[in-house]
């Protein structure tokens, strides 16, 4: 016998799998603020000057239709009235901004790499045997981490290496 709540629970889980991912998608703030909940999707997008169907927005040129043996319906798309042009301009401005560099390394990794270079120089085998190598990285893994640090912070790396050279001269 099927438990009375089993079908309801299955329906809820199915809804969560199908619908929730679409609800969680990020909608740009320009569109969200200009959206009128009393209008359809097509009407809202037309008011903003956006296309609901890209195939209708960018028509196929007549030359291509003739080559493929297709006939066009002869309708010329007329100028549509854009009631909310600020949405398109804001989206264009946002798209023209340079992309932020979000690649950074953790402070722990930076400290680890600096410690290894400071104490062992370029000797990766010695670095692998160091007691601070908590994750038991192999020499190749340590070398890769150092190269990542070099690529992310080239100026900081050059300054760090330059500051190490006077220390080595004093030791000798």
Structure description:
The protein has 172 residues and is mainly α. It contains eleven helices and no strands. It has helices at 6-18, 20-23, 29-34, 41-48, 54-57, 62-68, 85-96, 107-120, 124-129, 139-152, 154-171. Helix 8 packs across helix 10 (139-152) and helix 10 (139-152) crosses helix 11. The longest helix is centred in the last third of the chain and has 18 residues, at 154-171. The termini are far apart. The mean pLDDT is 81. Pfam families: Nop16. Keywords: Nucleus. Its main location: nucleus. Belongs to the NOP16 family. This is Nucleolar protein 16.
Q: Give the CA-CA distance, first to last residue.
A: 85 Å
Largest sheet entry: none
- Secondary-structure content class: mainly alpha
Strand content: under 5%
Protein name: Nucleolar protein 16
Organism: Zosterops lateralis melanops
Keywords: Nucleus
Pfam families: Nop16 (PF09420)
Give the helices and strands, then pairings:
Elements: H1 6-18, H2 20-23, H3 29-34, H4 41-48, H5 54-57, H6 62-68, H7 85-96, H8 107-120, H9 124-129, H10 139-152, H11 154-171
Helix pairs in contact: 8-10, 10-11
Would you summarize the structure shown here?
The chain is mostly helical.
Sum up the structure in keywords.
11 helices, 62% helix, 172 residues, mainly alpha
């Amino acid at each position: 016998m099927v438990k009375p709540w089993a079908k309801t629970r299955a329906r809820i889980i199915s809804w969560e799998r199908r619908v929730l991912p679409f609800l969680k998608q990020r909608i740009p703030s320009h569109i969200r603020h200009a959206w009128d909940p009393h209008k359809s999707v097509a009407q809202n997008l037309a008011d903003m000057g956006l296309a609901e169907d890209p195939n209708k927005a960018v028509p196929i040129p007549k030359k291509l239709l003739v080559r493929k043996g297709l006939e066009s319906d002869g309708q010329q798309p007329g100028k549509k009235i854009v009631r909310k042009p600020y949405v398109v301009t804001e989206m264009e401005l946002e798209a023209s901004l340079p992309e932020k560099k979000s690649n950074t390394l953790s402070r722990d990794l930076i400290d680890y790499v600096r410690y290894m270079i400071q104490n062992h120089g370029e000797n990766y085998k010695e670095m692998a045997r160091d007691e601070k190598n908590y994750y038991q990285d192999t020499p190749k893994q340590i070398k890769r981490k150092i190269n990542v640090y070099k690529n992310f912070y080239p100026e900081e790396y050059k300054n760090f290496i330059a500051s190490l050279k006077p220390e080595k001269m004093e030791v000798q």
